[in-house]
Specification:
0% strand; extended
Amino acid sequence: MGVGELPTEYSPKIHGPYDPARFYGKADKPLGEVKIGEFGSWFARRNKSPQAISAVFGRAWWRWQHKYMLPRKAGFAPFVQLLVASMATFYLFNYGKIKRHTNAKYH
C-alpha cells in the first residue's frame, strides 16, 4: 500500500464504502484482553513497519475527525483539544529552557 492506495485487505464487495478510520486486516485480540503471559506473543504478531505505524496514526486521526470535527453539530471540544495538545507539545519542546528559570535569591 503506497500513498493514495487502498489497503490490500479492503474489498468493496465485502466491506462497502471505504472508511479510513477502520482497520481492514485480520482481527486479533485487543490489548485490553491480553493476559500478561500472552503479551510477548501478542506483540510479536504486530506489524511494526514504518508504514504500519503511519497507518495507525492515520486511522486514529480519522477516528478523531469522525467523532469530534465532522458531526453536523460539532461543539467546542475539538478546538479545546487541539489547543491543549499544542500547549503540551510546545511545553515539552521548551522544557529545557523553562526548567532553568527558577525564583531564587542569590545572596
